[in-house]
Amino acid sequence: PLSVGRGLRVSAHERILQEIESTDTACVGPTLRSVYDDQPNAHKRFMEKLDARIRNHDREIEKMCNFHHQGFVDAITELLKVRADAEKLMVQVTDTNRRLQDAGREVTAQMEEVIRCRVQQRNMATTVEKLQLCIPGQALDIHTHIYYAALKTMEQLENIYIPRVSHYRFCQIMAETLPKLREEIKDISMSDLKDFLESIRKHSDKIGETAMRQAQQHRTFNSAVQKQASMGFPKPLYTLNGRTSTQQNGLDTEEGADEDDADEEVLTAQDLVDFSPVYRCLHIYTVLGDRETFENYYRKQRKKQARLVLQPQSNMHETVEGYRKYFNQIVGFFVVEDHILHATQGLVTRAFTDELWNMALSKIIAVLRTHSSYCSDPDLVLELKNLIVIFADTLQGYGFPVNRLFDLLFEIRDQYNETLLKKWALVFREIFELDNYSPIPVENEEEYRSVISRFPFHDAEIEKQQFPKKLPMSQSVPQIYIQVKEFIYASLKFSESLHRSSTEIDDMLRKSTNLLLTRTLSGCLQNLIKKPHIGLTELVQIIINTTHLEQACKYLEDFITNITNVSPETVHTTRLYGLSTFKDARHAAEGEIYTKLNQKIDEFIQLADYEWGMAESDGRASGYLMDLINFLRSTFQVFTHLPGKVAQTACMSACKHLATSLMQMLLDTELKQISMGAIQQFNLDVIQCELFASSEPVPGFQGDTLQLAFIDLRQLLDLFMVWDWSTYLADYGQPTSKYLRVNPSTALALLEKMKDTGKKNNIFSQFRKNDRDKQKLIETVVKQLRSLVNGMSQHS
């Protein structure tokens, strides 16, 4: 029972503490009274409970303070920092406010002055309006050109004042006179309109010139802004007077620009021409109910003027000024029509101006297509293109479609490229004519750097050599490379301002460059190679030059890529055909080398003077042949700079041609007789040829490949020198035959020449004296050879 009672008291004390914590302070009294109403010692136990609860709350408060202490300290620290910044900001705000107030004080004063002037202006206008209402009447004077006022006065007279006094005779006269006055006003206004049309015909040139100049300035400004933005410069800040802050600081973007031109007032068609006769006449005809007649007349006259404007001068194509005047007149005409279209209601319509423009556009295109075809100067064609672009931009700004003009520019671009190709053909010819066709000598590092700065040449071995040294190509190579780049720049000038993408411009440049390489430069190279004064040394240098130009084609690709910023990996990117151009030129030069080498061999062969009836050889080779071999040896030394295959082919071709020429000399039908001594002499010459072939005049031949060129001659001469007819006849037709390359007809022809010589010159007399059977053997061999030849012909 005691424990139960104690537990009840404890729970009662907890309840009382909870009430104290949760209830309002005013209600604590009854709660505390319940503690004293209990047993006498109950308040002591309650106090103990209360002290324990207070200590518990103190510990919780202490924990919470410890937890938030660091954050509180940091917050106070930040607050102290902010206070310092806030003080600085306050100073800046105060200073800014003060300067703003000072700056705005003058503006405020000017605004108050403007408001005061506006009030005065409004009061003056109201006064004038009221005064006009008080005027009793207006003078009817059509000679002061106040036609509309005169018509209104007549209308008032007719409808208001004359009916009031119509019974007076003078009023009747006035009423009868008014229609005549109206017709007189119509005639006078129509005369003014005709004067205006004549004046506008004269002023169209000036109007067009002004409009095109403004369009050009606008385009130049836009391109400058785009260039400035692409270079990372900030956009210009405009001030009240229209100049940029950069210009005010003395950094004018247009260096050297005339200050008067910068401040020149922008003129419009209305500033140059007084359009009041048109407005006045239109208003009068409208008031008189005859507007349609006026509209038809005006449109008819303007169509006639349009046809006159579109007629070019016969010599327009000779100078750019002729084209400029032609464009100025057309622009002036349509600027006037555009102004009339927007300044009047219905005098001309958009459909009418579009009809005029379409008619004019067809005529303009036909005229430009005809006259531009007469232009042979690329600079004039380029200036014409710039004029067409400005002309198109000007009229496009007035809402006229100009796509067909840009299509025409593509036709003119092809013509421009043709004129460029003709111009560069002359440049290339001059370069080739002035070239010395010898390697470029460089004496020092400066000269070497000068050459490689103009042409992309890199050779590790040459760079290691000491100065002075020679670069393999001749001086025409860097000049050609520079001129190709100049051509690309010239072609790029036409592509500017055509409103085409970088990819299209890249394609245009590559196609025009391909034409330059494959047609112009290739044609110049082919003509150069065929020129008679170009010798073997020059041809060798041309092959070396074309090799280096071919290697430089990839740098031209990179050059175009850097200009257009179009990656060469793009799907539709056109490749340069320079590789095929220079390969074709090199092949042509190689063929010409072979031809000239053979011609030179023929010249030496023509110097041969064999004594075909000599009894025996003098034991040494012929002089002409030794000269020929020395020539070939020195020539093939020059070929060391050529690609190995070219030099080998030239050497093999020369040896084959020499062997063929010698064989033809033996078998010449005009040569009727030949002695054994001549055969021996001929054999000595062939031995010299074989020695030359075995000396490897050009490196790279395997084994006795070059000597095989003389194998036919060697076997034929061996057959006659050894007189080994039994072996020849026995092994004929066998793959292992010692005389496999000797044709029976060849042996027969040569043997018959010797047989005839034996009969007449008694060469075989010793055989007949010693052994007459040998002569019979010759006859037998001849018969057998003839049978072999006949058998071959029948078989074939």
TrEMBL record:
Biased composition (Acidic residues): 252-261
A GO cellular component entry from the record: exocyst
GO biological process: Golgi to plasma membrane transport; intracellular protein transport; vesicle tethering involved in exocytosis
Domain of life: Eukaryota
Domain Exocyst complex subunit EXOC6/Sec15 C-terminal: 405-753
Domain Exocyst complex component EXOC6/Sec15 N-terminal: 49-212
Disordered, as annotated region: 242-261
Gene3D superfamilies: Dsl1p vesicle tethering complex, Tip20p subunit, domain D, Exocyst complex subunit Sec15 C-terminal domain, N-terminal subdomain
Keywords: Exocytosis, Transport
Membership in a protein family: Belongs to the SEC15 family.
Stated role: Component of the exocyst complex involved in the docking of exocytic vesicles with fusion sites on the plasma membrane.
Name the record gives this protein: Exocyst complex component
